[in-house]
Amino acid sequence: MIYLDNCATTRPCDEAIKAVCENMSENFGNPSSLHKAGIEAEKVLKSAKKTILNKLGLDGEIYFTSGATESNNTAILGTAKAYKHNGRRIVTTAMEHPSVAEPINKLCEQGYTAVRLAPKDYENFEQAIIDAVDSDTYLVSVMWVNNETGYITDTAKIYNGVKRKNPKTIVHVDAVQGFCKLPSKTLKADFVSISAHKVHGTKGVGALFVAKGMRFEPLLYGGGQQKNLRSGTEAVDLIAGFEAAVKAYPDCREKYEKLNTLLQERLSAYEGITINSFNNSKNILNFSVKGVRSEIMLHFLEESGIYVSSGSACSKGKTSGVLAAFGVSDENADSAIRASFCPETTESDIEALAEQIGRGIERFRR
Ligand code: PMP
Question: Minimal CB count within 10 Å: which of 67, 125, 253, 301?
Answer without folding.
Answer: 253
